[in-house]
Design goal:
This protein has 385 residues and is mainly alpha-helical. The chain has 17 helices and four strands. The chain folds into two domains: 286 residues, Fido-like domain (Fic-like fold); 65 residues, Arc Repressor Mutant, subunit A. Strands 1-2 form a two-stranded antiparallel sheet. Strands 3-4 form a two-stranded antiparallel sheet.
């Protein structure tokens, strides 16, 4: 490894068949510095928000479900987010599964492997090792038949990445004799003082990008790279955001592949396209988390308001319980007919006349707890403002 070149932002490693492969931290600092500052300010604001244990547990469950759905869907898994949630909730023990289901079970195990550190523990930069990368891949691809892949083992055959719709095809290093020294060089480089000095955000992006560049395994490379990225960010103290990022990679899948291809083809190993895209995903993830936490706090405040209204007899028990049902289903619209027919509302109104049900809705509208919209009556989340 040429250490002089490392000081010039690009380290080139000579391989047997693939020529020189670049490990690069050459990117435009000016192009991303504003996004980094914005993210750090947003994250510090998030860290100051109160998150009660119940909300924190629900956030963890929801984000991991969504992230696992997204990171699997990027690689072609056909299961819906609802089906993913059902599989993750199943007790351990089922052994015979279709490939799509097994991928989800494996990802559930892998996400537990990269769980965030215990609150209060000192934050130290995560040291990426080949053993850790191979362990992740072994977990991700276990019990899945693939003729050109052994879980956790580097490949010894050619693969192609991408297609014409996503910026063209890329052919990573082709043989084991190239991949082995490249992976050894990668972990030395990603743990180097120079790369550590870039900060956890950029370092996580560099790990993601370069693992994609080497593509060391026959299967599971994208999922492995995204989880290494998440681990670096989790260990740096960025709670929630790392696991949500896969959701935004999936939502902008075309841009994801194009950013990788543009960086791979850029002159002087300039990886600005991927770093800029990464920072946009980080910011979107942080904003999403902020909205979720704000909504959780608002729900708690609304529950207290409804309880107070019931205690001082501003509303009755049945009206109170209807509001609680709607709180659990944000955005749900209801009509007078729904009170007797909708499975969520019917238990409350099964023995109530239409006249009484109409009076309940009128009272909740009068208090502006429900608002009339084109699709029906919806909960007013801003009633306290």
């Amino acid at each position: 490894m040429d250490r002089a070149e490392d000081k010039l932002l690009v380290t080139r490693v000579m391989t047997f068949k693939s020529g020189k492969v670049a490990f690069s931290r050459n990117y435009s600092r000016e192009a991303v510095v504003e996004d980094i500052v914005r993210f750090e300010a947003l994250f510090h604001a998030l860290a100051a928000l109160p998150i009660v244990p119940g909300l924190a547990a629900q956030l963890d469950t929801d984000l991991i479900r969504r992230s696992i759905f997204s990171t699997a869907a990027i690689e072609g898994n056909p299961l819906s987010e609802e089906e993913v949630g059902e599989i993750l909730a199943e007790p351990a023990g089922k052994t015979v599964r279709a490939r799509a289901e097994q991928e989800i079970v494996n990802l559930g195990k892998a996400y537990r492997r990269v769980a965030p550190p215990v609150p209060g523990e000192p934050r130290v930069p995560f040291v990426v090792t080949e053993q850790f990368i191979r362990e992740l891949n072994q977990i991700i691809t276990a019990d899945i038949n693939h003729k050109d892949h052994t879980p956790g083992q580097y490949r010894n055959h050619m693969v192609e990445v991408g297609n014409a719709d996503h910026g063209g095809k890329y052919v990573p290093p082709r043989i084991l004799a190239d991949i082995q020294p490249l992976m050894a060089a990668f972990v030395e480089w990603i743990n180097s003082e120079e790369v550590m000095g870039e900060g956890a955000l950029v370092r996580a992006a560099l790990a993601h990008y370069h693992l994609g560049l080497i593509h060391p395994f026959g299967d599971g490379n994208g999922r492995t790279a995204r989880l290494v990225e998440a681990m670096i960010l989790q260990q740096a103290g960025y709670r929630y955001i790392p696991v949500l990022m896969s959701n935004f990679y999936y939502k902008s899948i075309d841009e994801y592949y194009v950013a990788f291809q543009e960086a791979e083809k850029a002159s002087a190993s300039d990886i600005t396209p991927f770093i800029k895209y990464f920072m946009r995903v980080v910011l979107l993830s942080a904003k999403d988390i902020q909205d979720r936490i704000h909504w959780g706090i608002r729900i708690m405040a609304l529950r207290h308001l409804y309880d107070a209204y019931m205690q001082d007899k501003t509303i009755g028990r049945r009206q109170h319980d209807l509001l609680q049902v709607l709180l659990l289903h944000p955005g749900k619209a209801i009509s007078l007919k729904d009170l007797h027919l909708d499975p969520l509302c019917a238990p409350l109104y099964r023995s109530v006349s239409e006249k009484t049900a109409r009076r309940d809705l009128a009272r909740l509208q009068e208090l502006r707890l429900l608002l009339e919209r084109e699709q029906g009556l919806v909960l007013n989340p801003f009633v306290m403002e």
